[in-house]
Amino acid sequence: NTDSKPEYLQQFALMGSIYMEKVMGIDNPKVGLANIGTEEGKGNELAKTTYDLLKESNINFIGNVEGRDIPYGAADVIVADGFVGNMILKVTEGVALSLFGQLKDAFLKNTKNKIGALLLKSSLKELKSKIDYREYGGAPLLGTKQPIIKAHGSSDAYAIKNAIRQGINFVERDVIKTIEANL
Q1: Enclosing domain of residue 7
Q2: Crossing angle of helices 157-172/175-182, nearest 10°?
Q3: Nearest 5°: phi and psi at 78?
Q4: pLDDT per residue as tens digits for the range 61-104
Q5: 182 within domain boundaries
Q6: What pLDDT shows up at residue 136?
Q7: Domain check: are 15 and 58 in the same one?
Q8: Which pTM value belongs to this model?
Q9: Are 12 and 63 found together in one domain?
Q10: Number of continuous H segments (helices) and E segments (strands) in the chain
């Protein structure tokens, strides 16, 4: 939802927390609200009202999270409306693609850099796998009556396999029933 209400964001937070606990195996996941500052009282009216609702909820709400802190694991769940959330995803994807493209260019520049790349190969592969959307397969659409995993438009067979695996975990761990019981 690009135009969300605070109550919807509160529900998103609860659903995200349940998903992270049930499917990803994170006990008491940290939930943060995407905002322009970490201090309470920051942001637009939607952010301020949502903050108050999340503070009073039964989830592990850690407060506001700035965009720069998201890649460092500031929270296990980031709550945002559809517009802000999509911007976060697209900017993150663009930065990652740009960074890896620039690294590749630098490593191929000369023999010394190629040797350096060979020495770093396993570490670079590990880093790439952490930020490669294909490893996760897709993202769950929470709040639906049936499990839905939304895959990236450019997903290959490997990504689709992982999306299916994620969907199986979603069903086996009864995420929808747990969400319905808690909303």
Answers
A1: 1-80
A2: 50
A3: -110, 125
A4: 999 999 999 999 999 999 999 999 999 988 988 998 899 899 99
A5: no
A6: 87
A7: yes
A8: 0.85
A9: yes
A10: 6, 5
